[in-house]
């Protein structure tokens, strides 16, 4: 694993939250960020959100508005980021343009937001003296290396501008840990899914797209033959990994996979969703898209050893909850 120092610690220590602490969630109005906000509020800490609402949605934060401090600002604005970080203890840095396709269409903007924006967050974190930065990295950094499962020590082979931006940002986080002593953990999320994920955007992920299509009686679209596979990771597991990372001992900095550690093909996924929806809709196939990887599956050994984390919700449980969510949303 790519860690500054190996350290195994008691899970009870990882679950200790100081209630006077303030947590900044960049991208807190997004799919993953808003779920982090919800969990932090449950744990009784103070929460601040920085988001420019590019892909974030007001409805994601609607239930928590009275309990959080929201700053509508852009992470490309260094002064705004510095002001948002002042007085905070931990930063969950989720804000990004989170799409391979968007990065292929406009690589410069992806770089400005995902790389320069991350530098602003790191510099603001340093100025504020925060205890730790937890960065949302991505499985895309591995690219199409044929070996499975993906292990953190493998040489990254990013295939898209998005993947390069995530790798650069992740490396900046680890350099800030090594050079400036700012503890930082980069979590390489593998295909996250769950309630609140936007099925309607041009850049929507496959599970919300497939679920909302099938539940509406439409055939889902697969780019390619459907034999490509993914390690789909339920949102509650991603939230748990962030909480474990936030409370890691100061000695622990590094990049860790966050995943289920299993993979299924897109054709199998369509069959699962059909089964849950009580339908039998076959996929429409479109040409494969550039920048997409063929197979993806993580080893989750390192994060287990270093952060004491493992998934608590199975893929089947998560998919059932997600399909139920979209069924309700469509009513
Ligand atoms: P999302 O698009 O729902 O959330 C991203 C949030 O960042 C949005 O609220 C958006 O408005 C905000 N944002 C975008 N540009 C901004 C800017 N310039 N300034 C301030 N805020 C800005 O996406 P998500 O799925 O919740 O992803 C969260 C993070 O996790 C991203 O960093 C993404 O790259 C990473 N990630 C996601 C997945 C996944 O499967 N969803 C996988 C790997 C990594």
How does this structure look, described?
The protein has helices spanning 11-14, 31-42, 58-61, 78-85, 100-105, 107-128, 161-180, 206-215, 235-246, 266-277, 301-307, 315-330; strands at 2-3, 22-26, 46-51, 68-72, 90-93, 132-138, 184-189, 192-193, 221-223, 229-230, 233-234, 254-258, 264-265, 284-286. The chain has 331 residues and is an alpha/beta fold. An 8-stranded mixed β-sheet has the order 1-12-7-6-5-2-3-4, sandwiched between helices. α2 (31-42) links the parallel β2 and β3 (46-51). α8 runs parallel beside α10 (266-277). It is globular. Residues 1-14 have low confidence and may be disordered. The structure holds nicotinamide-adenine-dinucleotide. Nicotinamide-adenine-dinucleotide binds at residues 27, 29-33, 51-56, 74-76, 94-98, 113, 117, 136, 138, 189, 191-192, 205. Nicotinamide-adenine-dinucleotide (NAD) is lined by residues 27, 29-33, 51-56, 74-76, 94-98, 113, 117, 136, 138, 189, 191-192, 205.
